[in-house]
């Protein structure tokens, strides 16, 4: 059953590549993966918009959460329970921002599996030899390093992807730092939150790590097959632009899944 499904998915990728062949020639399959990623992101976009609405609702609850901090600041367990009850009463999910990323995982793993196996069903996987410029879509960065090094023909393809990821990660880092700083300033201006009471348990660690999480995408790109890396790079870039638009009017709001793409 799974082999049949993978064969159908391989045929879909090949069909898209055939359509894009006149424009992209030897890199048509890579272009097909970018197009497939864009299609997935369009399907997920309504969830992203719903996530943004949920973030606005969570931001509106901050004054009430500040009151809960004042009331239960010395009892972290009671504070956490009270915050969860408030979210439930207002029908606001703290995890709604994760849904767009979770719904993308199947598409990522499909590409990962397709370009990690030498055979699909009973046939050889011919897609592995398709390329993005000089780099085969079934290879990894280690393969490129072994064939010409960092500045070889294959290595330069990865250098280009790393540069794109680094630019997007830097954009996300700066934006997340700004939004967190704005949120901290807003909380400090709230009397109930300025009395030295502790924050929601675990929030301090999240605040320190979150701005750096986008850079972890570099590791993903380095270790997965190039086809899956191309999906990650395209999706991450899409996410950066999408969030900049959806969250532009919320200076103190940080998406719950700001680094998952």
From the N-terminal CA to the C-terminal CA, the straight-line distance is: 30 Å
Q: State the low-pLDDT regions, or none.
A: 190-203, 253-260
What's the β-strand tally? 4
Beta percentage is under 5%
Radius of gyration: 22 Å
Largest sheet: 2 strands, antiparallel
User: What order do the SSEs take from the amino end to the carboxyl end, as H and E?
Assistant: HHHHHEEEEHHHHH
Any idea what the shape is? elongated
User: Could you state the oligomeric state of the chains shown?
Assistant: single chain
Our count of helices gives 10
Strands ordered across the widest β-sheet: 1-2
- pLDDT averaged over residues: 82
Overall helicity:
55-70%
Main structural class: mainly alpha
Entry keywords:
single chain, 261 residues, two-stranded antiparallel sheet, 4 strands
Protein architecture, described:
With 261 residues, this protein is mainly alpha-helical. The chain has helices spanning 2-24, 28-60, 62-72, 76-89, 99-114, 141-146, 153-188, 203-209, 217-223, 226-246; strands at 119-120, 123-124, 131-132, 135-136. The chain is built from 10 helices and 4 strands; from the N terminus they run H-H-H-H-H-E-E-E-E-H-H-H-H-H. Strand 1 (119-120) and strand 2 (123-124) form a beta hairpin. Helix 2 (28-60) runs parallel beside helix 10 (226-246) and helix 3 (62-72) packs antiparallel against helix 4. Residues 190-203 and 253-260 have low confidence and may be disordered.
């Amino acid at each position: 059953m799974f082999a049949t499904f993978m064969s159908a998915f391989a045929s879909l990728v090949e069909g898209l590549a055939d359509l894009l062949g006149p424009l992209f020639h030897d890199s048509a399959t890579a272009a097909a993966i970018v197009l497939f990623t864009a299609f997935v992101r369009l399907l997920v976009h309504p969830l992203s918009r719903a996530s943004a609405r949920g973030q606005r609702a969570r931001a509106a609850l901050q004054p009430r959460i500040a009151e809960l901090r004042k009331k239960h600041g010395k009892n972290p367990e009671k504070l956490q329970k009270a915050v969860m009850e408030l979210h439930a009463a207002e029908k606001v999910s703290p995890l709604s921002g994760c849904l767009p990323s979770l719904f993308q995982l199947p598409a990522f793993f499909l590409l990962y599996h397709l370009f990690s196996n030498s055979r699909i069903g009973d046939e050889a996987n011919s897609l592995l030899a398709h390329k993005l410029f000089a780099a085969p879509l079934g290879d990894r960065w280690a393969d490129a390093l072994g064939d010409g090094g960092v500045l070889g023909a294959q290595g330069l393809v990865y250098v280009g992807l790393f540069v794109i990821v680094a630019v997007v990660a830097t954009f996300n880092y700066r934006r997340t730092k700004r939004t967190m700083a704005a949120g901290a300033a807003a909380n400090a201006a709230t009397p109930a939150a300025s009395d030295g009471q502790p924050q929601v348990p675990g929030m301090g660690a999240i605040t320190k790590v979150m701005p750096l999480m986008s850079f972890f995408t570099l590791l993903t790109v380095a270790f997965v097959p190039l086809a899956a890396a191309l999906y990650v790079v395209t999706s991450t870039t899409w996410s950066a632009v999408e969030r900049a638009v959806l969250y532009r009017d919320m200076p103190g709001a940080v998406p719950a899944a700001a680094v998952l793409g």
